[in-house]
Fold this sequence. Notes:
This protein has 443 residues and is mainly α. It has a domain of 296 residues. Helix content is 72%, strand content 6%. The chain has 15 helices and 6 strands. The strands form 3 sheets. Strands 1-2 form a two-stranded antiparallel sheet. A two-stranded antiparallel sheet has the order 3-4. A hairpin with a 4-residue loop joins strand 3 and strand 4. Helix 7 packs antiparallel against helix 8 and helix 11 runs antiparallel to helix 13. The longest helix has 37 residues. The N and C termini lie far apart (54 Å).
Amino acid sequence: xNEDALFWHRLQFAFTIVYHYLFPQLTMxxxxxxxxxxxxxxxxxxxxxxxxxxxxIRVFGINFAVGxxxxxxxxxxxxxxxxxxxxxxxxxVGHTLAMEGLFAxxxxxxxxxxxVWGEKRLSPRMHFLSAVALWAGSWLSGYFxxxxxxxxxxxxxxxxxxxxxxxxxxxWEFLFNPWALAQYAHTMSAAVxxxxxxxxxxxxFYTLQRTHLDQAKRFLRVGTFAGLASSMIVAFxxxxxxxxxxxxxxxxxxxxxxGRFETGPMAGITLIGxxxxxxxxxxxxxxxxxxLSFLAYGAxxxxxxxxxxxxxxxxxxxxxxxxxxxxxxxxLGTLFIGLMAGAALLSWRGWLHQVKPVLWALLLAxxxxxxxxxxxxxxxELGRQPWLVYGLFxxxxxxxxxxxxxxxxxxxxxxxxxYALLAVLFLFxxxxxxxxxxxxxxx
Length: 443
């Protein structure tokens, strides 16, 4: 495979998937928060919660529509750009990709229609159950996608056929891959972080504007408490379990994530440092001793292997970007816990709407979960390199050999233009909903 063409194949897929995932992370996070709001609306005097849920259902619908449009090209790219990978592993990963489309997607879209247009036609309890079904559909869709990715990270339940391709021999082992279970819990809790920060930001915006104050208090309450809970779950236990799986099955990735070249006990986690690959060292490090050993193996004294223990052809191909992606994700995740802990405490005491610095922090913080989620997926995917299916099939083997770099670059330019237009449309529609406010009647 021509390296120039491979670069453009990888860049195009990276662009489309990073752009696409800006939308599902919010829909999956909002789905749970909408269920909570609809559940609260069933209590006596819960009309205000029904109004809050109605507003976020409209936001969910816009986000879902754009997510569908941006997700469709990715399905085609498995055939157009990654045909060799599809021939090699399609008999395994094709099952969950098909299930995502046929079951989860149609379930999600069907019940979204009931939520958007069925409130006056359904009883409050049935409308609540529609929200539960929407949540189940969106999270089921997420599981099938994560399960597909988990096989690429830790392949299980397969065998190699006589023609060299993979065959599925244990569907249940594949479906309940331990890597998939851990990665799914981590991904879903991170999606709830995004949803919570967006809801809290809307509440902060309306509070600072002195409009829709009753709904703003509800947004702040739900956003801060859900944001605190989900931010903590992202760190522990889901992040902790994920770190231990990386240590067990991808030790070279663990070393690269921390820019660790030397093997030794009491391995520290780096707060600040710059990986110097040429010199095989970490420049200007500030580290907390023992933490990496504890995260990886549950004991401070355990030895963590450095990159020098592995042949360089097994190292992740972009070690510097992997290192910074991991530290951006971990650093932001720590800040999220601190911000939401303070905001939740103020909300519990009834003071949050009076503390403008915290309201401004909540308003300005909503883009950062998107950054953290993107950095987290970059960590996972860069850490898997140079493999498409870890330990079995290299990325350089997976691209479509007959699709040259000029064609790939041409379509990448096309995607860039189309997604720019979609971004303008999305921002216009969301801006219009924010301007109308949660008390506008769209039913």
